[in-house]
Design a protein that fits this description.
The chain is built from 1 helix and 8 strands, in the order αββββββββ. The protein is mainly β and 120 residues long. Strand 2 and strand 3 form a beta hairpin. The chain is globular, with a radius of gyration of 17 Å.
Length: 120
């Protein structure tokens, strides 16, 4: 993992971090919450929420197996907080993504994406 000039890794700086993005429309002085990302005690992204004027637009929850830093499962929720898509991931030995499996909320496999890497 790369170290910054201060000697702290990027993941180390994200431990228990919550990042909120605020927007302000032209002509208004009132900011509104646009996006929020939450990280766990290991510095892994565990949740991202996108907001609209009416509230939550989309929420994505990231899950990990054990102490892994690679996301094993991702669940996307709609504005009513109902699951709309579930993604599961497989990785190669070098940490690159090998495959992504896309499921409907009822657990039925919808599609599969595979990743191929080549160097020039």
């Amino acid at each position: 993992m790369a170290q910054t000039q201060s000697g702290t890794s990027k993941r180390e700086r994200k431990k228990n971090l919550v990042v909120k993005e605020w927007n302000t429309k032209v002509g208004s002085k009132t900011p509104y919450l646009d996006n929020m990302v939450t990280y766990d005690a290991m510095g892994r992204k565990i949740e991202e929420i996108e907001y609209a004027s009416y509230g939550q637009k989309k929420r994505v929850v990231y899950e990990y197996e054990g102490n892994s830093t690679k996301c094993s499962r991702q669940v996307e929720y709609d504005d009513k907080n109902h699951a709309v898509r579930i993604k599961k991931f497989e990785y190669n030995d070098d940490g690159t993504r090998k495959a992504q499996y896309n499921y409907k909320p009822n657990g039925k496999l919808e599609s599969t994406k595979t990743f191929e890497y080549s160097y020039k």
